[in-house]
Amino acid sequence: MDQIQQLSDYIDQSHSMVAITGAGISLAGGGITYSQLFTKTVLRGIWGRDRFLRSYVKAMHSYKPTFSHYALRDLETAGKLIGIITTNEDCMHTIAGSKNVAEIQGGFQINRCSKQGEPRHSKLRWRAMAWPASRFTA
């Protein structure tokens, strides 16, 4: 039995799974890691936290969820996957439609109003690049 068939059989027999993902799932679609961006920004002479974050957010808007993001969403919709734990901050799991996502290193889709401190959860703002913290505007 090949590995793909074996994995398919495990999924079919499962009643509850959790997916743990990292940079690889987004890199396949053109994503970028902090270390890759740091190398690019340092080599270009871009310094400072705000400029680095602007560059990072801009880079994250240059790609979309991958086949794997959508496959995990489909497993969640089918009731096989109970959640996703990810070290990614790019919100691609949520944009793909997954509901139970834990971005354990934080995420850029949750914004706080700088005047009232209220959280604003919005993948639509994220995709439109329209969030309240102007320093993160690309």
Can you describe what's shown?
It contains 7 helices and 5 strands. It has helices spanning 3-13, 23-27, 34-44, 49-60, 67-77, 92-96, 123-128; strands at residues 17-21, 81-86, 101-103, 110-112, 119-121. The protein has a 3-stranded parallel β-sheet. A two-stranded antiparallel sheet has the order 4-5. α3 crosses α4 (49-60). The protein is elongated and about 50 Å long.
Characteristics of this structure?
two-stranded antiparallel sheet, 3-stranded parallel β-sheet, elongated, alpha/beta, single chain, 138 residues, 14% strand, disordered C terminus
The largest pleated sheet is described as: 3 strands, parallel
Count of discrete alpha- or pi-helical segments spanning 4 or more residues: 7
- Total beta strand runs: 5
Terminal CA distance: 48 Å
Q: Poorly predicted ranges (pLDDT <50, ≥5 residues)?
A: 130-138
Rg over alpha carbons: 17 Å
Helical content class: 40-55%
- Average pLDDT: 76
* H/E element order: HEHHHHEHEEEH
Which class do the helix and strand fractions yield? alpha/beta
Query: Beta-sheet strand percentage?
Result: 5-15%
- The order of strands across the largest sheet is 1-2-3
> Given the C-alpha coordinates, what overall shape results?
elongated
